[in-house]
Amino acid sequence: MQFTAYEGGTLYIEEYIAESGYDRKTALEKLKKLGEKGALTCPFCKEFLRLKARESEKRKTHFFHLSGKACMLSQAHDTYNQQTTRESEKHSIIKDVIYNELKTQERIKEGLNVEYGVEAKAEEKWKHYPDILVRYKGEESAISILTNVSANKDAGLVKLIQKRNQYFKDKGLETIWFVEEMEMTLDMKRHVLHLWEAEVDLCTETTEDKKWKELLSGLQSDHSLFDIFGYHKKSVNISLEVRSLYYVYSTDERIEFSVHRFILDEKTHPFRAFALNKGYRMSLSTALLVKEEIVLSDAVEEERLRREFVQAFHRRKEEFEEGMQAVAASQAEELEQVEVICDVPKKMDYSMLKDKLWERLGMTQPQQMRLWNQYVLRGFGNLDKIWELAQTVETFEELELLLRRKK
Q1: CA distances in angstroms from 106 to 132, 136, 283, 388, listed in the order given
Q2: What is the dihedral of CA 72, 76, 81, 83, to 10 degrees?
Q3: What top-level branch of life does the organism fall under (predicted)?
Q4: E-assigned strand segments in 91-173
Q5: What pTM was estimated for this model as a whole?
C-alpha cells in the first residue's frame, strides 16, 4: 500500500517525503519509526502497518500489515493503483465528481447503489476493477474513465482495454467508458472523426444509437449516404451500424460530458468514422441521470439533431443530383466537341466504355463522374487504354489506383 491512516487523516509516502523537509533516506527512516511505534494503521481493517523501504526504488517502497496478511480491501487497492498508474492527475478528480453526482441520486432513488469499484468487489479479489460500480434493478454497470492517451501509448492501451472489457463482460457488467475530451479529433466539414484504436474499442451501441440507425435506414436515395454528404469513405461496404463515444471535459470550474455518434469506416490504422453530427455537451445531472439505465444523452437534443440531419440529407441529396445532371450535360457537350474535332474516330467512345465498366466492375454513377472529371478530362483521353487497364483488375477502386499511377 502507498498510503496509511495517520492522526485522523491519510498519509501518502511520496507526499510525506516531499513535505517533510528531509532528504529521502531520512524521511523514510522517520516513517519506519512511526510504524514501529504503532502510529500507522490500515484505513480499512485498522491493523498496524509498517514501512518496507527501498531508498532508490519507489515502487518497492510500501506499507505492509504487521501480521503479514494484508486485508482484502488493501490488496484490492494495490491492484487498482497498479491499474491506474498510467492515468493523468485528472483521472481521480473526474472519478470523484462522477461518483458524487451518482451518490446524490442514490439518496432519492430507491434501489440505486453506487460504490467505488475497488471497494465494491474487493472481497471477490477481481483482477481488474472499474472506477465506479452502479447497481440498479438487478443490473450492474461499470464506469471507467480513460485519460492520457497518445500515439506511443495507444498500442499497449488497446490490449489493456480489451482485457478489462472482456473481464467486466464475463462478470456480467455493462461497461461505460468516458474518454478525456482532449483526445477527440473531429473534422465536421468532411464529416470525419479520426480515432485512436483504443477509442474504437471503447465505442458502444446505446438506445439512441439504435434510433439513429432506424432513421438512416429509412432515408430513401439511389445514391450512397456517404457520397451525398461528401464523405471520402475508405471501405467498399459500410453498414449503417451507429456507435457512440462519450468524452469528459474538465475545467477548474466544472466537468461536462459530450456524446458523439458515428458509423465506423476504417477498422485498421488509421482509424476513422463518418460523423453524423458534431456532437453536443451535457451537464453532469443530464448525462448521469439514472432511469432504467444511466441516460448518457439529452432526449430533446437528440430529436433536434435527427431533424436537422434529415433536412441536411434532403438538401445535400438535391444538390448532389443537380451536380450529377450538370456533369452529365457537360460530358455530352464535351463528347460532341471531340467528335467534331477528331478526324479519325476512336476505337472506343465514352458511352461504350461506361457500359463495359458497368458490366465488368459495377461502376456506379458517382464513380463514373470521378472517371470523367478526374481522368478523362484531365489528360487521360485514351479510352482504349482505360479499358485495357480495367481488364486487369476486379474493382473500380483498383482501376482508380492504376489510373493515378499513369497520370
Answers
A1: 13, 10, 18, 71
A2: 150
A3: Bacteria
A4: 113-116, 132-136, 139-146
A5: 0.68
